[in-house]
Amino acid sequence: IMSVNGKKVLHMDRNSYYGGESASITPLEDLYKRFNLPGTPPESMGRGRDWNVDLIPKFLMANGQLVKMLLYTEVTRYLDFKVIEGSFVYKGGKIYKVPSTEAEALASSLMGLFEKRRFRKFLVYVANFDENDPRTFEGVDPKKTTMRDVYKKFDLGQDVIDFTGHALALYRTDDYLDQPCQETINRIKLYSESLARYGKSPYLYPLYGLGELPQGFARLSAIYGGTYMLNKPIEEIVIENGKVVGVKSEGEGARCQQLICDPSYVSDRVTKVGQVIRVICILSHPIKNTNDANSCQIIIPQNQVNRKSDIYVCMISSAHNVAAQGKYIAIASTTVETADPEKEIKPALDLLEPIEQKFVSISDLFAPTDLGTESQIFISRTYDATTHFETTCDDIKDIYKRMMGSEFDFEEMKRKKNDIYGEEEQQ
To answer: Where, subcellularly, is it found (predicted)?
Structure first.
């Protein structure tokens, strides 16, 4: 984005691969090494290089911010996507498909008949809701009425509230219930519009894994004159009079006016705000009760398992060129709430049995204490437990605003890109 904005960009990475902590690891042998598992993968796992395993599971909302960024920057020309086959929600120990059409809503065993009618009314209301047209409000004030009151207005029961808030609006906790309803209504709209694009689910996933995303952006940056250096250790961030002026690496220096980095490069300028547990599971079978889907998402709403935050499962397979033939990768993740994270994630792992091999990681979540106003060092937040990129995109837009002093504008980016590509065509 900065390259497209005419900035001169040098990108240095201490790793030998793209994507930092959200890389896709290949071959499979490297994943075993990374998690310090003894020995090598068994023959039954097929060829090591057929695997591309994401360290951080996320899907893209078809109508979400990241897809817009990819389309506007034309990074899409380097990527191929597949639609995720279904989204499921956990209730009373079983999983149910999240209804994605009116017909599915009417057939769903998640709700009784009268509940279905009320839910349908609610969805129609959300679809017609336009924050710029008070005639669509029906007595609701988007900036004052809480979401709890909107649910009351439509007389929706607890189960429906659970899956609406957690499987459609994709909130991780129930804090949203007492906040103004505008944000929730917009989130449900985003879900419905994303779903409308492809029909099976609102989520997309790139062939060959999420590691393709940073590579696509790297290629785009190179077109605009950005320089990339992998395997480049950062020895020191050079500060003069409280402001960043460069970095040192292998005895050489590079000067700069602004620096963007993740929390691992500046431990003295971030604070720990929590932890996430993620468990990567290799399976030889699709997940039970998902209609043998090649890919899916399962959301376990927090109060189904007496927690404050939801548990997520993302499942992909050889259909996405990320695993050997006949193999499936399911990744469970949640925000850590107790001293025994593995016990917290057990409800998700129970849905995946039998599990052939698992890789457990517990990561600290960091947020910047230095917003970069003085230092001009701009630090991203650690990836959270959500299974889509919306919160990540909010972070990108926040960093952009702090660096540039103005809001990130998709349309503006489109125009700049046309200027550059237009000139090339005329020569």
So the answer is: Cytoplasm; Golgi apparatus, trans-Golgi network; Membrane
